[in-house]
Amino acid sequence: MNINKIFKSESFLNQCRKFKLKITPQRIVIYKAVSRSHHHPDSTEIYKIVKKEFPSITFDTVHRTLLTFSEFNLIAAVEGSDNSKRFDPNIVNHHHLICEECGTIIDFQREEFDKLKVPDTMLHDFHVTRKRVIIAGICKACQKKNKSK
To answer: What distance lies between CA 141 and its chain's CA centroid?
Structure first.
């Protein structure tokens, strides 16, 4: 398998090399599955996709790989509305709207949220590396569904 043909961008491979992460066909497929998703999948969703190509892969392997990718900022881990961990291929600074009913996560960018000031008292014991605002509520589809009940 020619790894370079799989990705249009060398970014993933370069990041793996930079952090000395072993590049395996399984890791490539896991990363591709997350990258192609448009809805912040959880480990179970990624596992189902990857299992089609690697039937012997375990859920634990997929989950640990996703956590490793998030640890090295190849993807972002996002808490869902039910406290489940979801994964986001978009590592550019952005924020989330989370539906408390269906769990949908919507990305948005807002410069003033990026500039939120952290209270000085917190900065004595904490070094801020990034900021992400999460706004919880009910999405339009769930609002419609609730009105029709």
So the answer is: 22
Domains of the chain, CATH where assigned = 3-79 (1.10.10.10), 92-147 (3.30.1490.190)
Ramachandran assignment for 132, one of left (phi > 0), alpha (psi -120 to 50 degrees), beta (any other): beta
pLDDT in tens, 48-73: 999 999 999 999 999 999 999 999 98
Nearest to 66 by CA among 56, 74, 54: 74
Q: Is the pLDDT of residue 4 over 60?
A: no
Whether the Cβ atoms of residue 114 and residue 66 lie closer than 8 Å to each other: no
Dihedral angle, C-alpha 48, 51, 57, 61, nearest 10 °: -30
Q: Which tokens hold the place of 44?
A: 């179970």
